[in-house]
Amino acid sequence: MTAAPFRPDADWLPYHRNPSTPAFRPPPGSVDAHCHVFGPGDRFPYAPERKYTPVDAGRDALFRLRDFLGFDKNVIVQATCHGADNSALMDALHAADGRARGVATVRADITDDELERLHEAGVRAVRFNFVRRLVDPKPDQYYRAVVERIARLGWHVVVYFEMADLAERWDFLTSLPTVVVVDHMGRPDVTQPVDGPGFERFMTLLRDHPQFWAKVSCPDRLTASGPPGYDDVVPFARALVDAFPDRVLWGTDWPHPNLKSHMPDDGSLVDFVPRIATDEEKQHRLLVSNPTRLYWGEGR
Ligand code: 0GY
Q1: Fewer Cβ close by (within 10 Å): the C or N end of the chain?
Q2: CATH number, domain at 116?
Q3: Contact, 172 vs 141, CB < 8 A?
Q4: Helices (H), 13-130
Q5: How far apart are CA 25 and CA 105, in angstroms?
């Protein structure tokens, strides 16, 4: 019996099929440091425990977008719809021929051989997702056991949480022994002042803990004012780029899972970059030297 085909969620917004050409040209060697591959589901089945079923968004479409937007490389982040089965990610890494690195989801019972295969393919980090609409919560010990497995490989940890959860997760996050990259600036409430207590806590996290990095990504997820300018997100991303120019990353988040208000034009997202990284030096660090150091530097 063949498996039933995957049917995307009824309210799923597919990625933009015809993005605009950005006015901003990324410098040579630029890295889109946060993007995903979804399926195709008939080849790489979505995980039974997933909270959503997306429209397929495979690696060939990702690589076409990379070239169209003027990027050189990708960091592909395992999304929760694929659970801890990293097959689609591995397939994309192999096909990228050195031009992609991966962030995987692993469980503590993964074998050393499998970890080695992930490393060989280009995985350099694991992702811990704490967003409750995406995954069921697990005790800290679950994550600590994973860290014990990956630290010897020189990998780091990528974390995704809601800003409201930072206080509760603070002690755990700051106790991690690796570099920790926070997705989407820790999801600030951009209707609040940039120097208000919410975002100030996040700035303090980076100021007091030099192992923390931030992705200044996803204005489309954070905005209240909306596209195409995402004006309300600019001060938050710019504050991070200005304060921590060596510890910021940027990515498209293609194919933009779970957006309900609108689907961003990836060209407009690239044009967000010069508004948050306001000179060539900052743009080069954000798009080239920071991701290259973290993902293509010596890992172990
Ligand atoms: C993102 C954001 C989301 C989804 C995931 O792994 C995922 O499923 O991270 C989201 O829904 O906010 O970074 O892709």
Answers
A1: N
A2: 3.20.20.140
A3: no
A4: 59-69, 87-96, 112-121
A5: 32
Count of domains observed in the chain: 1
Ligand 1 pocket: which residues have CB below 6 Å? Answer: 36, 79-81, 129, 134, 160, 183, 253, 257-258
**Separation of CA 193 and ligand 1 centre (Å):** 25
Residues identified as active-site? 253
**Ligand 1 centroid distance, CA of 257 (Å):** 6
In a domain, 20, yes or no: no
Atom 13 in ligand 1: residue holding the nearest Cα:
253
Q: Is residue 17 part of a domain?
A: no
Joined together, the tokens standing for residue 273 give 């970059």
Per-position pLDDT tens, the chain of length 300 = 455 679 999 999 999 999 999 999 999 999 999 999 999 999 999 999 999 999 999 999 999 999 999 999 999 999 999 999 999 999 999 999 999 999 999 999 999 999 999 999 999 999 999 999 999 989 999 999 999 999 899 999 999 999 999 999 999 999 999 999 999 999 999 999 999 999 999 999 999 999 999 999 999 999 999 999 999 999 999 999 999 999 999 999 999 999 999 999 999 999 999 999 999 999 999 999 999 999 999 544
The answer to whether residue 68 is domain-embedded is: yes
Alpha helices for the chain (secondary structure H): 59-69, 87-96, 112-121, 140-150, 166-174, 197-208, 219-222, 234-243, 266-276, 280-284, 290-296
Is residue 26 domain-resident?
no
Task: Identify the domain containing residue 125 by its residue range.
Answer: 31-296
What pTM was computed for the model? 0.97
